[in-house]
Automatic annotation (TrEMBL):
Coiled coil: none annotated. Transmembrane segments: none annotated. It comes from the Eukaryota. GO terms for biological process: SCF-dependent proteasomal ubiquitin-dependent protein catabolic process. One of its GO terms (cellular component) is SCF ubiquitin ligase complex. It holds the Pfam family LRR_6. InterPro entries: Leu-rich_rpt, Leu-rich_rpt_Cys-con_subtyp, LRR_dom_sf. This is F-box/LRR-repeat protein 14.
Amino acid sequence: MGDVCSCKRDYYADENITRRGFSGRYFKFGSSKWLESSLFLPAACCQFQRSSCPSLMELCIRKICEDIDKYRSFTMLPRDISQLIFNHLVDSCSLSDNCIESFRHCALHDMCMGECTRVKDKWMDVISSQGSSLLSAYISSTEVTDFGLSLLSNCSNLQALGLDCCDRISACGIKHISGFTNLTYLGFRKCCGLSAEAMKSLSSLMKLVKLDFERCPLIHGGFIHLEGLTNLESLTIRSCKCITDSDLKPLEGLLNLKELQISCNDITNAGASYLRDLDKLVVLNLEGSDVTASCLDYLTAFTSLKSLNLNRCHLTDDGWLTKLESLYLDSCRISNDGLAHLAGLSNLKALELSDTEVGSNGILQLSGLKKLEDLNLSFTSVTDSGLTKLSGLTSLRSLNLDTRQITDSGLAVLTVEARTFEFHRHSLQYFLVDLVVRFRDFFALSVAIICLTGLTHLDLFGAQITDSGTKYLSFFRNLQSLDLCGGQLTDAGVRNIKDLTSLMLLNLSQNLKLTDTALEFLSGLTSLVSLNVSNSSITNDGLQHLKPLKNLRSLYLEFCGVTACEIKKLQATGLPNLARYRPNQ
């Protein structure tokens, strides 16, 4: 049967790094941001099944997992089947001390524990029993010790290893990692046991391509041990509060680096200057660093740079790069005048202006960014009238308007010409020639705005949208994610979005007037993967309307009249794919 069911090792080395999301400043349960910060799970665990009819294999896997306590060992099964069973248990958070033993000596390729934090040294013994077959392992647990890590010495072919939150692993235990010479990915996120001294053990891992030290507090001074890792293409040291400018000096010789995630408060222009020779960089994240506009002088030579995150940096309106595809300026002191410098960024595809001083007058400066696909204007002073200046951005697919100045009128502005075109479409069949000749300018403007209704992601989290305004959403037929959490919606407003059948993520939280009828209107949105209706008036009686949503994996019903017991019944009888839910608290 081969390895078709095994998750890919390149999951750990995301090739699409030019568009990957950076840490969001504002967290919202169940919003489109959830998709960007999805769990660190194998690819096989994260694929959503859009089909309403599961395959025979899927049904068998589900049944086995339901009756998992009946099985003592899966060694007699083909490896790919055992892998699917394991992945399903991980995905449904059903791994336990008893069932993990069933996978001893199954020669699995991948043992990625996902969100499971109960991993113990006993589990590590089961992982190590996979021997040379094991290619990737991900553990996030505070209970694994040096002894547990030492057990992995049998797994000589490991290519990817993640050890998050493993605070009981010390420098002594990390020495065992030096024997995994085939590693291409290594992660130590949020590990207090990783110190500068322990980093010596990594110097022999010459095949490393991706290294992740996010939120490791004790690694200051250890980067000198990475100088010889010349194959390294991705390094993450985000939110490592111990990092200073001197830690960046050993990186200046890592000339193959394509992705560098720093995001440390104590990095200044002096530290950024050590990066000047890293001309292969595609992604650079300096979020929250103490750099100023003068550091851009070092970066202008980066001809490959496509994504630059300068969120919360000390930037003003001076100076930009010209070949960027992504620019992140969250919480920078950028004003309308500063946006004039964006005029030459003709390749820009993603622009983050959240929490800046940009207002409606500044939006006009964006009109030349014809390739722009992703625009974030949340927490700015942009108003309804400013949205008229977005009409020329025909490539736009994701728009964040999470700001209280946006109202129903703003949505009307985005669709006004589209609605006019729809109104005249019937007449067009009879008076085509006359209409085109007499109203050709109007027709061209209409087509431009219609392209804007090709949005796939629309965030109106804090916008003041009422039931009346939701009628304009019917023109956004391609929407896959939508946030409407301004608190003014009733069931009548939900009725107006019931035909947006491409929706996969829908956040309607904070709308207290929503009742069980709202869920009835949503029952036809069968592509939904995540639904958030927290802080509403929905009760247990309304859960029956969710049964057609077979693809639903996440359901948020906090501060509603819904109990955990009833959600579990729904999961067991109608929504087998539901893996996460938050009932009333």
